[in-house]
Amino acid sequence: MRSENGLWILPTRRRLWQLQQFFDHARACCTSTRGIIIVERSEFEEMGDRYACLRMLPGWQICLTKNEGQGNKYRDAWFQYEHLDWVGCLGDDTWPETINWDRRLIDRLDGKTHIVSCDDGWQAPKRMCGTMLFSGEILRAVGFLYPPDLHHWYADDFWEAVGGATKCWTIDMNVMVRHMHAHLTGETDETY
User: Would you give the DSSP letter of residue 33?
Assistant: First the structure.
C-alpha cells in the first residue's frame, strides 16, 4: 500500500484544545502521513484566528464544509478522498500513543484486509471505534465512507458489520490510538 496516496480525515466542532492534543500526541509519535481537518464554514469564520494558532503537522490542512454534523462533513469532503488508495478516520478526541502508528496501520491494508482498526483503550477488540482505516477500493465499492442518512453515530457499527461479514476487517491491538471519549474523561461541553 502506498502510504503517500491517502489521508486521515478528522472532523471537529469547536474543540480546538482537543484537536491540539491530537496534534501534540501525533507529533510525539512520529506521524508522517497527511490529513485534513473538516470544519463547518461558519464555525471557521467565527474562530479562524484560533484555528490559525493550531500547531498542525506538516501535510495537514483545513477543509471547510457547508454542513454541520459528522456525517455531512464526510459527505461534503468525499471529492477530497474518493480516489485515494487509503483513507483513515480520526476523532478530535483520539490521541496516538504508538510510535509510527499511522504507517503501521497502513501496512496492514493488504488486498484482503480493507478495514483496519486498533486498540482504543476502550472498546477494542470487541468493537471498531475511534480510529478506522479503509482501503480506497472498499470505499469506492460501496460509494461512501459515511452511510447516507446518518448524522453522527453508528457509522462504526455499519463498517463493523461489513468488515465482520466479509472478513476484510482486522484489529491491530499492538497500535494504540487512545479514544479519550467524553464519558470516560468527564470533560463534556456544549458540543457533546
Answer: S
Kindly state the DSSP code that residue 29 receives in the 8-state scheme: T
> pLDDT for 89-126, tens place per residue?
999 999 999 999 999 999 999 888 899 999 999 888 88
Whole-number Å distance between alpha carbons of 152 and 58: 28
Looking at the DSSP bridge assignments, the partners of residue 65 are 40
Residues 6+ apart with CB under 8 A from 48: none
Q: Exposed, middle or buried: residue 191 (CB in 10 Å: 0-12, 13-18, 19+)?
A: exposed
Show Cβ contacts of residue 10 under 8 Å, excluding neighbours closer than 6 positions: 19, 22, 35, 36, 37, 38, 89, 90, 91, 92
List all residues 6 or more positions away from 81 whose beta carbon is below 8 Å from its beta carbon. 6, 7, 9, 87, 136, 139, 145
pTM: 0.89
Q: pLDDT tens, 117-145? A: 999 998 888 888 779 999 999 999 999 98
- What span, in angstroms and rounded, lies between the C-alpha atoms of 42 and 24? 26
- Is 49 strand, coil or helix? helix
